[in-house]
Amino acid sequence: MTRLYRGLGVALGLLTLASDAAWPQNAPAGDVANGKRVYLAVGCFTCHGRAGQGGAFNYPAPALAQTRLPVEAFKIYVRAGPNEMPAYAESVLSDQDATDIYAFLRSLPGRRPAKDFPLLN
Q1: Contact 6, 83 (CB under 8 A)
Q2: Is the separation of the CB atoms in 86 and 111 below 8 Å?
Q3: What is residue 26's predicted lDDT score, i.e. its pLDDT?
Q4: Using CA atoms, how far apart are residues 110 and 81, in angstroms rounded to an integer?
Q5: pLDDT digits (tens, 9 = 90+) for 10-52
Q6: CA angle 98–102–107, rounded 5-degree value
C-alpha cells in the first residue's frame, strides 16, 4: 500500500512538473547512442517499446518518445518507479545513463497524428 501511495505522489508531482510551465532549455547533454544501448540493456523497451511508443505489460505503459518531462523530473520518475515500474537506483542506472536515455527518447520521432494515417481518415 505504501508503494501505491508513493507512486501516486510521484505521478501527481510529475504531472505538476510536466505542465506547460516554461522550462530552461539548458538540460545536460546526453549521448543518444549510449542512451539507446542502456534503454535496451536495462529492459525499458519491454514495457515502453523499442521506439518509446508505449505499450502494455502489466498495465498501459506510457509513450516516452518526445517526453515533455524535464530531465530532472525524468530522473526522479526513474528513481521512484511508480506503479509496476521498477525503481532504478543510482547504483544500477547512473545519472549520466539516465540523461543518455532521456536524450535517446527526445531524439525519437514520437507519435504521429491520426491525420497522417490514410486508413484513419
Answers
A1: no
A2: no
A3: 54
A4: 22
A5: 544 444 444 444 444 555 589 999 999 999 999 999 999 999 9
A6: 150
Q: What residue segments make up the domains of the chain, in order of their start?
A: 2-19+30-110
Which amino acid makes up residue 45?
F
Total number of residues shown for the chain: 121
User: The C-alpha cell of 44 is what?
Assistant: 525499458
pTM, two decimals, is 0.72
The alpha carbon of 91 is separated from its chain's Cα centroid by a whole number of angstroms, namely 19
Q: Cell 505503459, residue?
A: 61
- Give the 3-state secondary structure of residue 95: helix
Alpha helices per DSSP H over the chain: 2-17, 32-41, 45-48, 71-80, 95-107
Residue type, 85: M
Pick the CATH number of 2-19+30-110 from 1.10.1040.10, 1.10.760.10, 1.50.10.10, 1.25.40.10: 1.10.760.10
